[in-house]
Design a protein that fits this description.
The protein has 778 residues and is of the alpha/beta class. The protein contains 22 helices and 24 strands. It has a 6-stranded mixed beta sheet with strand order 1-3-5-6-8-7. A 6-stranded mixed beta sheet has the order 11-15-16-14-13-12. Strands 21-20-22-23-24 form a 5-stranded parallel beta sheet, sandwiched between helices. A hairpin with a 2-residue loop joins β12 and β13. α19 runs parallel beside α20. The chain starts with a helix and ends with a helix.
């Protein structure tokens, strides 16, 4: 009995989590819409819906004995009841408090069933107390003065004080539209659908195998037809021999025949009849195999398409939290931002949406952090004070979708991108100047390249766009960047609608077979060897009037060059691949065909193999690697550089590398010791100072490669120390990393103003982040 009760409670809790998540999302979306709404009737409708959502969530929480969620909902009900009764003024402070309540509901839902920590209890008490205070103020205000309104007047007047609200423009969920839920729908856990979909995908192998067997039978029939042709050619000779064998043999005497030859001829006649019979049976079998292959292929394609549709979700499921994310981040950065989402009803594979969540979050964060200017700066540039971020999804064709992320901010300074790439040693100054604007912009995808003047705990390291590009291309997509200074920045991402199966080009290099994703193949051609040209000691070919680098695929993959007995080809097959703004032609021994490919992972043990993204099984049963085009392009550049003739250089005598010297300025002995130990363990030579005055004194007497400083210190704080360092020409280029407990927007902006190279907040301190920043700057 106890077991049944526990099982029932577990099922009830699981149901509650799903229902509660919908209520919380509806409340959050309602708050965003309420911030945007201006018409009194529209405000009233939204408040009514949010009130009901909070009430429903309270009842559901009571059913599973979640006292914490119930108490927050009770306080929210009180506030929204006051809004309904026209007894409260909307203000940025009120919206901030309500959004905090929604965030707390989400946190409690994640940890429901587990014991609350002391910190969570304190946060909950503070939040409920804040809501109650708001309610008490409302009650007192209502007792002192009855609000006066006239018909048509905005009963939810918004206070003008405080920073302007950041708004997200997004369609509300269906519950806001008052549409009834369809009765012919049923909830099925995705964990049950995923294995079913994977098994359906496996049927593709059976389809390819059946097709291969039909092809094999067809080839056997072709061989038998060749044999039939040969028999028709030789049969007159056999008949001549047969006639001559019927005459007397002089060796055996008059009237006697050679008995062995007729038997041989008789066998040949029987063998011919038997092969014809076998040929007929094989022809019938080949037709049946071809018919069965088509039928199986049709059923597999239909089933796979149906299962793909089952797991297709609208982009709105991915973007539902973006309006709140934009609101919170823009307010934290002191900016005014409108988010416009278009085409969110378009559907894509659930796995693609899951993989694209972090890249899209990063791009939108970049728009707010680096793109959209402050209201004051936008006013100086004669722009609207509110910035605009557009996230638009549109179908590219029947199998691809385009995601556009754009802002109307400061754009990207190409000269700064060039300078950052040169500083990191990714490109020489001479080569950088040869790049056109589009090619120079593509350097921003290189790891470490950033135009941000300050490294913080969330941005400025130059890693984000490199990761975004890697994830997009791993999904078989492409990303393009357009930017104009003071006009804005636009990212265009093209993605496949489904993930597991795609078209691949099968190529042969020596005895090895490889599959190249067809979506990344720009062109396949056969180029005469006399058309190969050498430019700057590198082989190139001319395609559509442009010089394209040529690299042997074997060299890019590090395969040894094998001697072959094959006759050298007059024309060499080449496959032209594109990644970002770069195109490279790869020469192969043979392009076999293009076919459907089912991607198989290499397993946890081989989660990351250079140049290889996965594997597939051909219809013949042969396992073939699938090439990673992004890796392959990088390997091609290295292979091309390594192919250049180099003069022998005498090996320099080995000597121990000099350790980088770091000055740690921190008044707390505990924090000072912690930072010193972390940096020394990473191989740095560390000296310490107890405050800004001590630190600056040591700087003038000793040589340091980098300074790590606290901010809040006696005598001279970190801001003043940084400003003093920057005012001295001798230390103008010395990197300064501020590690501090001060995390407000104003403090970060002051860090930028005084010239700090990085700003790390202690509340989110992680030693790996510190070491990454120090390695990059030192």
């Amino acid at each position: 009995m106890e077991e049944e009760k526990r099982s029932f409670l577990e099922k009830l809790l699981a149901t509650f989590k799903v229902e509660a998540a919908e209520h919380i999302h509806a409340i959050s979306s309602g708050l965003i819409a309420l911030e945007k709404a201006s018409a009194p009737q529209g405000q009233l409708e939204i408040v009514e819906v949010i009130f009901r959502e909070a009430h429903s969530l309270k009842g559901a929480a009571r059913a599973v004995n979640s006292v914490e969620i119930e108490s927050i909902c009770q306080s929210l009900e009180s506030v929204f009841s006051a809004l309904k009764n026209k007894g409260i003024l909307l203000s940025p402070a009120l919206f901030d408090l309500l959004h905090r309540a929604v965030d707390m509901l989400g946190q409690l839902l994640q940890t429901i069933g587990s014991k609350s920590t002391g910190t969570e209890k304190v946060q909950l008490e503070e939040l409920v107390h804040g809501l109650e205070n708001m309610w008490n103020k409302i009650s007192l205000s209502s007792q002192r003065k009855e609000p006066k309104t006239t018909p048509g007047e905005d009963f939810l007047a918004t206070e003008a004080e405080g920073p302007p609200l950041s708004r997200g423009v997004m369609a509300l969920p269906s519950r806001f539209e008052g549409k009834p839920i369809l009765a012919d729908t049923v909830r099925i856990s995705v964990t049950k659908l995923d294995p079913l979909f994977l098994q359906t995908e496996e049927l593709l192998s059976a389809k390819l195998t059946a097709r291969q067997r039909a092809t094999d039978l067809h080839e056997i029939n072709v061989s038998l037809a060749t044999r039939e042709t040969e028999w028709a050619r030789i049969s007159p000779v056999v008949r001549t021999i047969q006639h001559s064998s019927e005459r007397p043999d002089e060796a055996t005497g008059p009237g006697k025949k050679n008995s062995a030859l007729p038997k041989l001829l008789e066998f040949l006649e029987w063998e011919n009849t038997f092969v014809k019979s076998l040929e007929g049976k094989l022809a019938v079998l080949a037709k049946i195999a071809e018919r069965d292959s088509r039928a199986l292929g049709g059923m597999v394609d239909s089933l796979l398409e149906d299962m793909k549709r089952v797991l297709m979700l609208p982009f709105s499921t991915l973007l539902e939290n973006f309006p709140k994310f934009v609101r919170d981040l823009s307010r934290d950065r002191g900016k005014e931002v409108d988010l416009v989402i278009q085409g969110s009803e378009i559907e894509a594979d659930k796995r693609i949406l899951e993989e694209m969540k972090d890249p899209l979050v990063h791009l939108v964060r970049n728009c707010i952090d680096h793109g959209i200017e402050s209201p004051e700066e936008r006013t100086r540039k004669k722009k609207p004070t509110r910035g605009k971020i557009t996230l638009a999804i549109s179908p590219k064709n029947s199998s691809k979708v385009e995601v556009l992320i754009s802002d109307d901010g400061a754009g990207i300074n190409v000269s700064k991108v060039r300078a950052a790439a040169i500083k990191l040693g990714l490109i020489s100054e001479v080569d950088a100047q040869k790049l056109n604007e589009k090619e120079a912009l593509s350097l921003i995808y290189q790891s470490g390249v950033s135009t941000s003047p300050l490294i913080t705990d969330i941005s400025g390291r130059g890693l984000g766009l490199a990761i975004v590009q890697e994830k997009v291309e791993r999904l078989g997509g492409t990303i393009q960047l357009d930017a104009q200074v003071d006009v804005g920045t636009t990212f265009r991402i093209v993605l496949p609608l489904t993930l597991a199966t795609f078209r691949g080009v099968l190529v042969r290099v020596g005895a090895h077979l490889f599959v190249i994703p067809a979506s990344r193949v720009e062109q396949i051609a056969r180029i005469a060897k006399n058309e190969f040209q050498t430019v700057e000691n590198r082989e190139t070919i001319q395609l559509k009037g442009q010089a394209v680098s040529l690299v042997r695929l074997a060299d890019a993959l590090g395969l040894p060059r094998e001697e072959t007995a094959e006759k050298p080809l007059d024309k060499v097959p080449v496959v032209v691949l594109g990644s970002a703004e770069r195109r490279i032609a790869f020469s192969v021994d043979e392009v076999l065909n293009e076919q459907e490919v089912l991607v198989k992972s290499l397993g946890k043990q081989l989660s990351r193999v250079r140049n290889i993204s996965g594997a597939t099984v051909l219809g013949t049963g042969k396992l073939v690697p699938i090439l990673n085009v992004t890796d392959l392009m990088q390997s091609a550049v290295r292979a091309s550089a390594g192919a250049l003739p180099r003069a022998p250089v005498a090996a320099p005598a080995k000597r121990e590398a000099k350790k980088k010297s770091v000055l740690v300025v921190e008044d707390s002995i505990t924090s000072r010791t912690l930072l010193k130990n972390i940096l020394e363990a990473a191989g740095y030579e560390v000296r310490t100072a107890v405050d800004g005055v001590d630190g600056y004194t040591q700087l003038r007497t000793e040589q340091f490669d980098l300074v790590v400083s606290d901010v809040d210190m006696p005598r001279m704080n970190g801001f003043d120390l940084t400003a003093k360092i920057r005012s001295d020409k001798k230390f103008a280029e010395l990197p300064v990393v501020l590690v501090t407990a001060l995390e407000s927007r104003e403090d970060r902006e002051r860090g930028i103003d005084v010239g700090a190279s990085a700003y790390i907040v202690k509340s989110s301190f992680d030693q790996s982040n510190l070491l990454e920043v120090v390695r990059r700057l030192a």
